[in-house]
Structure formats: structure tokens, C-alpha cells
Amino acid sequence: MVAISMTWSLPSLTSSKLPRVNRYPGMAFATVNKDTATLGVKVTEGLGNLPKVVLTSSHGSEAELYLYGGCVTSWKVGSKDLLFVRPDAVFNGQKPISGGIPHCFPQFGPGPMQQHGFARNSNWSIVDSENVDGSPVITLELKDSPYSRAMWDYSFQALYKITLDKKSLSTELKITNTDKTAFSFTTALHTYFSASVSGASVRGLKGCKTLNKDPDPKNPVEGKEERDVVTYPGFVDCVYLGAANELYLDNGLGDIISIKNTNWPDAVLWNPHLTMEACYKDFVCVENAQIGNVELEPEKPWVATQQLSVG
Length: 311
Ligand SMILES: O=P(O)(O)OC[C@H]1O[C@@H](O)[C@H](O)[C@@H](O)[C@@H]1O
Hints:
Blueprint: E1 21-23, E2 34-35, E3 41-45, E4 51-56, E5 62-66, E6 71-77, E7 80-81, E8 103-104, E9 125-132, E10 135-143, H1 146-151, E11 156-164, E12 168-177, E13 183-189, E14 192-194, E15 201-203, E16 209-212, E17 221-224, E18 229-231, E19 236-241, E20 246-250, E21 256-262, E22 266-271, E23 283-296, E24 301-310
Antiparallel strand pairs: 1-9, 2-3, 3-4, 4-5, 5-6, 6-7, 8-13, 9-10, 10-11, 11-12, 12-24, 13-23, 14-23, 15-18, 15-20, 16-17, 16-19, 19-22, 20-21, 21-24, 22-23
Bound molecules: 6-O-phosphono-beta-D-glucopyranose (BG6).
């Protein structure tokens, strides 16, 4: 069993004019297999005995996330899971979880450190949870540690707020420089969507400058996207610079998913095709990304939001 220490404070009172909120700020909290005091937020034991949080909205939607990697692994509206976890994903707290919404931070990659940085294979903690009109909200935190410092020697705080609504899953990522010197980073939300790859397509990328990482990720080929509708006919690994604030994914399974963002300037489409023969037909990645370096001065924050919603 995984024990997580708990520090509660009293729930805040709400006026009748405010949305109905029950809120529980605190340190990483709750013992596995216990309900937290926040409606719709349950900390439990997931695969590999890793701490998992189940979010249940009063509207019937459900999401799951692992503290390891701060990774949302499931988002269900009705009985359908709109996210995908690869069959080769491991839940051992050693390797990043391959699926759901992994973080790439502080490097999208390739670059000097491991491909997607360290946030997706670090343990995040819970710092806050609340329920707003039936929608559970949880905030995770990651701070520098000896593990992160060995790769990137800076003090930082990452706060990741996840809100589950009736038909949407929203995230806000806030990176704060808590160091004495400026640092720079790149980042992405490497979202794996369930899909039928032959029917999947993305709208909203026409006109973007592209960096095609196929065949050589270290020497991407520059181009411009001319298509209204971008498909995944084979191996796809392409960066779209200056992408729109809203993309539409047709997952080929009967759903159009809107992918809205603020301050994620770029996007990445990825499907490994035959290099992952066992599962490539069942997912596509559409990633909100920040490909250029963000230069962050001490005490300054960088904030970006993503909202996934389905009709
Ligand atoms: O690390 P994962 O989840 O296996 O994903 C790897 C892929 O992630 C994508 O974001 C990159 O554009 C690809 O170049 C890379 O191969």
C-alpha cells in the first residue's frame, strides 16, 4: 500500500452568489483506497501499486491520473475513453507512462537531456482539490529534486490544475522560476487520443510553418502546411509552429474533439506507424507544445491552458 501524508485545512465557506465549491488545500494527501473529503476526488492504488486519482463529475464523466508523471491516463465521457494508453506502457515508477497526457518538461526534445525531460518520470504531489458545481478539480505540484537537479540544475515549481467537466477536461500548467537565476525550457502535453488511425484527421493547421522530424528528428525539414485536413497516412512526426488556438481532431471513431489552448503556441502530430505495429492503428497524438525556448526570470511564472472537449 502507498501511504501519502495528509494535511487538511478547513473547507472554505461560500456565499450563495458564488459557484458551489468545496475546497481542500493541503499537502499530498489521503491514504490509498480512501475517499478524500472533496466530492468526486478519490485517491486509490493504480497499476503497479502507484497512487492514482479518480475524478468523477456529477455529470457522469470520469478521469484518472497517476501522481507518477502527473499523467492523466483516462478521460471518459459516457463509456468511451477518449485517451489512449499504449499496451506496452509500464507502471513501475521507473519509466514514463506511455499514454494519456504525459508532460514533456523542461525539454520537448531531442536535446541535451533525456528525450522529453524529467517531469513525466517524477512523482508529483497533490496540493489542492475542490469541487465546483459538481466538477472535481485537483492541483498537482512538482518541484526540483536531486533527480531533476542532476539533469537541470534549477529551482522551479510546476503546478498542474486539472478540471473535469461534463464534456471537457481542462488543464492549466504554471511553471514558476524559484531560482536566483533565469532559466529556459521547452515543454509539451504529449496527448495520446484513442483513434482509428485510418479515419483520424486534424483541422486548424493550414498555413503553419512545419518542422518535419521524419526522417531525422535532429535535423527537421522546414515546410509549410497546405492542407485543411491533416491525416496520418503513415509514420507522422511533425511540429507545427504558430498553430491555431483551437484544433479539431476527428478521431475516426465518431467523435470530434476540440483542442483549445491559451499560450501553447505550437502543436505536434505523431503516429509511429509500423514502428509500433501492435498499437499504432488505435491512437494518434496531437500535442500542444512550446517548441521555442521560454526564458523565465526569477520569480516569474509561465502559464498555459488546454481544454479538450467533445460534442
Ligand atoms: O516518449 P513516447 O511517449 O514514446 O513518444 C515519443 C515520440 O514523442 C513525440 O512527441 C515526438 O515528436 C516523437 O519524435 C517521439 O518519438
